[in-house]
Write a structure and sequence with these properties.
single chain; 192 residues; mainly alpha; Jann2411-like fold; two-stranded antiparallel sheet; 7 helices; 4 strands; globular; binds zinc ion
């Protein structure tokens, strides 16, 4: 699957939580090989995709800020998903990661607007506002009951995060279509 292709984005951005979708745009260390936010334009396009907006205008400072926030959310997410480890090394949670999230959340978030036709729009979206919205989503997730349902996909070589919102709490794969089926086929071939 070509990095950044439509199929790739579809696979990355399906956690149901925009803050975790941001994690899936790449990162440092072992995550660098999955990077798709290389330029400010990439960032603007990806943030729009994650948040259901047209591409946002972004500059170099936005890219630095987005990567800083992404790093903190990444480290916290894989830390709380403890027990299910990603196939590549992810940096350990650091003191101050919460401060990075809180600082981004302190900026005004995206402002929704109701349109006369019943539709919805966002008023003058900026990257700073988008990062605030993502940081607030992270705070809701990490400080809420679903924190215990954050996991790393059980498929080998996947490493994507998921939030198990099923009643039984037995979800193991980021997607049934990709990783779930692959695991089933492998188990079938192994005679399991
Ligand atoms: Zn997976």
């Amino acid at each position: 699957m070509h990095l950044g292709s439509e199929a790739d984005l579809h696979r990355r951005f399906r956690t149901g939580r925009p803050c975790l979708d941001l994690v899936h745009t790449g990162g440092d260390g072992g995550m660098a090989q999955f990077e798709i936010a290389h330029t400010p334009d990439d960032l603007g396009r990806l943030l729009g995709r994650i948040l259901g907006l047209p591409p946002l205008e972004a500059d170099d400072a936005d890219l630095v800020a987005a990567r800083r926030l992404r790093g903190a959310i990444t480290r916290i997410a894989y830390d709380v998903a403890g027990g299910s480890l990603p196939p590549v090394p992810v940096d350990a949670r650091r003191p101050g990661d919460e401060d990075l999230v809180n600082a981004a959340a302190a900026a005004p978030p995206l402002v929704p607007a109701l349109l006369p036709d019943g539709g919805r729009a966002v008023v003058a979206p900026t990257v700073t506002a988008a990062l605030s919205t993502l940081a607030r989503d992270a705070i809701d997730l990490f400080a809420g009951p679903l924190v215990a349902r954050i996991r790393v996909c059980a498929a080998e070589n996947c490493g994507l995060l998921l939030v198990d919102t099923t009643r039984a709490g037995a979800r193991r794969w980021c997607s049934m279509e990709v990783c779930g089926n692959r695991a089933k086929v492998r188990a079938h071939r192994a005679g399991a």
